[in-house]
Structures are given as structure tokens and as C-alpha cells.
Design the sequence.
């Protein structure tokens, strides 16, 4: 019925359309999100590493290079905002802030997006997000003009 | 305890938020926490279903019964998308305007509360630590606790129980002492925690259920 060989073949076909592979770090204490992003990015020949907390994420950044980092804002332990500030002080890697809470609204006095951007995030994405929104956020963070060679589209 | 401690509580009470506001805030936090907990799995579901749909070429053609897996996957994706929209709308409803200072601290409190309750994949139960403390309250004290929690003033509460305000204040002071609470907000927080552990202990026997609102964080200093 749903032969694994067929899936693998499609995966290769899709991967060929992706011009470059990115090294992506996902920092989120919700493992289901990281796992799904990993599958999504694997289709685009990106190598994804998962960190289940801010400290683990910072540690991973110290061990290897990444082209882009996705950080959840609200995590137990060290918050994503603190992690963003910490990473930004030491690296220029593009950072996408993810949050399940409302990021911005005219009615909302708290601007999670603004705060995350202030701390050095390159773009923000609100959960739940679709693959299209994820691609847009990644493209935006990489700077679609300058880095068009590594675009996921 | 003496009358003076009752007076102190009144002063503290006017300085902090009212119990009614506490309850409204707690209900709001529970809503926000539920939404927060749904966001992760929903994101994953959306990405997986999109992946299934986009790789539909590998689905076998429609079976003899006319049902195509491609179509089923697309329908599932559509439903997931509509749940996501619903959850986003609910998230907008639940998030009340907060002062920026407490907003992130509150976000963390919500998560801490959920980590106590446990998530969908987590089969472990939080240990019933302090539920026993509840039993040491007299019937009157338990009644007063409920009234305090529901936002009754000393005068209103005393009238409700048909006792003198002095006696009512005495019960309230005893509650403060038994819980080791510094002020009213502290008492409500500790009482809610007891409720939380007591109910999660019950739900451990009767199946899973989120128990009580998260800790109030109005007075928590934001570390960020």
C-alpha cells in the first residue's frame, strides 16, 4: 500500500529541488514540534538538530555551526527570550522566535514579537504554523535578497 | 489570633488585586495554558499532514470502494487547519491585557503549572505533597477559605456564616497561620496549590484531568 521505497524516491526528488542544505537548530521543550520540523526540513535536505531547552541549545551552538536557529519563547527553565539575547551577544546567526502566545495585535499591550526582535530575533512565527509560514520565516531570516542561494523555495 | 492581624490583612488586601480579579485572572491563565499546551502538537500535526498531502504521488490510486487516501489526507489537513484557526482565535480571547512587567513571568507560571499537571505524553503523576495539610483545617476554617477565595469581604463572609466579624477574622487569621501565608494573595496561592495536589491525587486514581489554576504571579518579580 504505502511502500517505504516510494516515499524514499519522492524524498530524493524533492530534495533535488532544494538548492542548498541548511543546518538548522530547533530549541523547544515541546519535542513534538521539533520532531515535525525535522521531518519537514529533511524533505528539503536540511540537517536539523533538536535541543529540548535553552541550555542544551546554547551548548549545541557551541559545538557546531548552524545556518539558522529556531527558539521557542516560553520554555521551562531559561526562557527563549534570554536564550535569544545570549546567542545574539555571541553570534550573528539568524534566529526565529516561535511562540504559542499571541505575538502582536493592536489590542495587545504586550508585544512578544517586539521584545523578541529587540533581543535579536530575526523573525517571529506564531504556533500553530503551517509549512508555508515556516518557509517564509526562514526566508525572511536568511534575507531573501542576499541569501537567495539558500532559499527553501 | 488577635484583631490586629486581621487589620493587617485588610491593608494588604487593598494593596494587591482583589480575590475576584484573582479568580478571573486564574480562569484566564487556565485558558491560556490549555491553548499553550495545544499549540505544539497542533503545529506538529499540521506539518505532518502537509507532508502527507504534498507527497501524495506515493499514495496508491483510489481503492475499489472509491476512497482515495490522497483525498483522506487532504480532508484531514483541512480539519487540522480549522482546529488551528479555532485555537488561535481562542488564544486571542484568553490573553487578557497584562502589564509588560508580569507578562513573561506569567507565561512561565503557566508553563510551570502545566509541567506539574503533566502533558499528554507524560504518564507520571505529581506527588500529593501537601494535600494532607488541608485536613487539619476545621470545618469553619474550610468554609471561611471558600468565602475568602470567592471574594467575600470579612463583613459579607461573617454575615453569610452568621458569625461575628471578629470571629470570622479569627478564622481567617488561623488560615493564614496554618498555610504560613504572608498575605491574602499568598494564602489563595497556597490554598490553590493544595487543591491542585489534592485533586491530581484523586485524578491519579480516576484518570487524568487538569486540576487547578496556576499560581498567581502578580507579585512575582520578572527576572528578565
Sequence:
Amino acid at each position: 500500500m504505502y511502500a517505504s521505497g516510494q516515499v524514499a524516491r519522492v524524498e530524493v526528488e524533492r530534495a533535488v529541488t532544494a538548492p542548498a542544505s541548511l543546518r538548522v537548530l530547533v530549541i523547544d521543550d515541546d519535542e513534538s514540534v521539533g520532531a515535525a520540523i525535522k521531518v519537514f526540513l529533511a524533505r528539503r535536505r536540511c540537517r536539523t538538530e533538536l535541543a529540548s531547552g535553552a541550555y542544551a541549545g546554547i551548548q549545541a551552538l557551541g559545538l557546531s555551526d548552524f545556518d539558522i536557529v529556531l527558539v521557542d519563547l516560553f520554555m521551562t527553565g531559561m526562557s527563549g527570550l534570554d536564550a535569544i539575547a545570549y546567542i545574539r551577544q555571541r553570534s550573528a546567526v539568524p534566529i526565529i522566535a516561535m511562540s504559542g502566545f499571541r505575538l502582536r495585535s493592536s489590542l495587545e499591550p504586550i508585544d512578544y514579537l517586539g521584545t523578541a526582535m529587540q533581543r535579536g530575533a530575526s523573525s517571529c512565527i506564531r504556533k500553530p504554523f503551517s509549512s508555508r509560514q515556516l518557509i517564509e520565516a526562514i526566508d525572511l531570516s536568511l534575507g531573501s535578497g542576499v541569501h537567495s542561494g539558500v532559499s527553501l523555495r | 489570633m488577635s484583631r490586629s492581624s486581621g487589620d493587617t490583612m485588610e491593608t494588604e488586601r487593598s494593596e494587591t488585586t482583589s480575590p475576584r480579579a484573582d479568580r478571573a485572572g486564574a480562569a484566564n491563565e487556565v485558558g491560556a495554558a490549555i491553548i499553550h499546551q495545544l499549540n505544539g502538537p497542533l503545529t506538529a500535526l499540521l506539518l505532518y499532514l502537509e507532508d502527507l498531502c504534498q507527497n501524495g504521488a506515493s499514495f496508491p490510486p483510489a481503492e475499489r470502494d472509491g476512497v482515495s487516501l490522497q483525498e483522506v489526507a487532504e480532508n484531514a489537513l483541512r480539519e487540522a487547519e480549522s482546529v488551528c484557526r479555532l485555537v488561535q482565535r481562542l488564544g486571542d480571547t484568553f490573553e487578557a491585557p497584562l502589564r509588560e512587567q508580569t507578562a513573561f513571568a506569567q507565561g512561565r507560571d503557566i508553563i510551570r503549572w502545566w509541567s506539574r499537571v503533566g502533558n499528554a505524553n507524560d504518564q507520571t503523576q505529581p506527588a500529593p505533597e501537601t494535600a494532607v495539610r488541608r485536613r487539619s483545617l476545621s470545618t469553619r476554617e474550610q468554609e471561611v477559605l471558600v468565602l475568602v477565595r470567592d471574594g467575600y469581604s470579612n463583613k459579607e463572609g461573617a454575615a453569610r456564616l452568621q458569625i461575628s466579624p471578629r470571629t470570622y477574622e479569627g478564622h481567617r487569621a488561623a488560615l493564614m497561620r496554618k498555610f504560613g501565608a504572608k498575605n491574602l494573595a499568598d494564602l489563595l496561592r497556597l490554598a490553590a496549590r493544595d487543591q491542585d495536589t489534592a485533586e491530581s491525587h484523586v485524578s491519579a486514581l480516576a484518570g487524568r484531568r487538569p486540576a487547578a489554576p496556576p499560581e498567581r504571579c502578580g507579585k512575582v518579580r520578572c527576572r528578565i
